[in-house]
Amino acid sequence: MFFSQKLLGCVGLLTLSCSVASAAHSFAGSNLYYAAGLYASDRTTLLDGMQSAGMKVLRVWLDGQSTSQKGTNIDPFPDLEPTQICNGAANCYNDTVLQRLDDFMIDANSRGIKLIISMHSFNALQAGDVYGREYGTGYFYEQAYPQQAFDARLQHVMNHVHTTLGKPWKQLNDYIFAFEAENEAMIGKGQQYIEDHQQWQCDRANTIKNELAGNTGILVITGGESWMDESVQPGFLSCASLDAISIHAYGTGDYATSAIQTYVQRAQAAGKKLLMEEWGACYFTTENNNCPSGSVLSTSTRNQNIQTWASQITAAGLPWLYWQVLPNADPHYGQDYEIGIGDASWGTLESAAQAALSANAAFDFTEYLL
Ligand SMILES: *[C@@H]1O[C@H](CO)[C@@H](O)[C@H](O)[C@H]1NC(C)=O
To answer: May I ask which residue range the UniProt record assigns to the signal sequence (predicted)?
Structure first.
């Protein structure tokens, strides 16, 4: 009886309170893996640019950096575990990267932007960080000890007490949008390996969720794989501790609205959210998902690509984070999807991000956004 009255009341209100979920707005954001290495003026440029584009989320990594990246000057900082696997020994970690991000998240918050904290990367593992040196890219995901020591790393990050706010990161709902264990876990191993080791992702998500200790104001997400199908594993959709699945996609087939919608429906059926956490438009005339060098696309063609693909992703109801917005002009080094603030494609990306903010989304992220 009570239930049916509520339903009637709902109809009577004529969609005002009842359509909130379906009227949830989308949003856009960006990635900058080396954000902790930005000098103050670049940080201001980046965050001001993101704010003017209406971008709401910036995804950052914790890997140490010592040299300039993508034409951005770097204030060097070491890895969180610079010399050995710390396994929870507090004075073994070097918290410089966390302290840098303490300042960064204050500036971001003042511009309506929250951070995704990606707590490790496959890239660092493969490049031979403390875990990679000892366990390589296979045993790291397979043996008990590295998983235990890695969980201790996740706990260390989440319990880092913010330098000025005086609270651990795991309580900073106004500053942190989501935690993820690792950027693109296992990707160098191929899709079959990822399918065979899906449990690794859920085990790490359990660690993060347990550490949140009932705080549901920060999302637990996956950190993506190489493309859509690889990113959305059945074991991720059925993992109780995961709130959202991160999709990374660079092949243009994965940007088709109808292709994305099949994954949206699977996620909705599983009670999970989806986020296009990494996508980009190649600067060269190569296939979009193979962008190391080549002839340069005309500005108008690239801008058309950015506009078309962003609007297709938005039309499927997915929020998206571009890979990557730079505080400086893009020098076009290496895999080149970047757009510098002020570059010829910046205005196009800005408009696409603003359009996302006023579009409907398939998933309601409202309570997680500033
Ligand atoms: C952390 O790294 C910084 C920069 O390399 C260094 O100056 C500092 O002494 C290190 N701190 C600890 C506790 O090892």
So the answer is: 1-23
Number of domains in the chain: 1
How remote is the CA of residue 96 from the centroid of ligand 1, in Å? 7
pLDDT at 8 over 90: no
From 74, 75, 96, 156, mutation site for ligand 1 pocket: most ligand atoms within 8 A of C-beta = 96
Distance from the CA of 177 to the center of ligand 1, in angstroms?
28
Counts for the chain of helices (H) and strands (E), in that order: 13, 10
> What distance in angstroms lies between residue 173's CA and the mean position of ligand 1's atoms?
28
Mean of pLDDT values over 14-34: 73
Q: Is position 8 within any domain?
A: no
At position 32, the amino acid (one-letter code) is L
Q: Are 284 and 240 in contact (CB under 8 A)?
A: no
The CATH number of residue 176's host domain is 3.20.20.80
On whether the CB atoms of residues 234 and 203 are closer than 8 A, the answer is no
- 306 lies in which domain range? 25-368
Which residues have any ligand 1 atom within 6 Å of their CB? 78, 94, 96
Give CA–CA dist 229/250, Å, rounded.
Answer: 12
For ligand 1, the distance from its centroid to the CA atom of residue 84, given in whole angstroms, is 14
Give a yes or no: residue 16 inside a domain: no
Q: Which of 242, 170, 164 is nearest to 199 (CA)?
A: 242
Choice between 18 and 162, residue whose per-residue pLDDT is larger:
162
* Among candidate residues 66, 63, 94, 275, the one with its CA nearest the CA of residue 182: 63
The pTM of the whole model exceeds 0.90: yes
* Nearest CA, atom 11, ligand 1: 94
Query: CA 327 to CA 185: how far, in whole Å?
Result: 27
State in Å: Cα 20 to ligand 1 middle: 48
The pLDDT of residue 4 is above 70 = no
DSSP lists the bridge partners of residue 116 as 59, 178
Nearest CA to ligand 1 atom 14: 94
* CA atoms of 207 and 61, how far apart (whole Å): 19
In the chain, the amino acid numbered 43 is: R
6 part of a folded domain: no
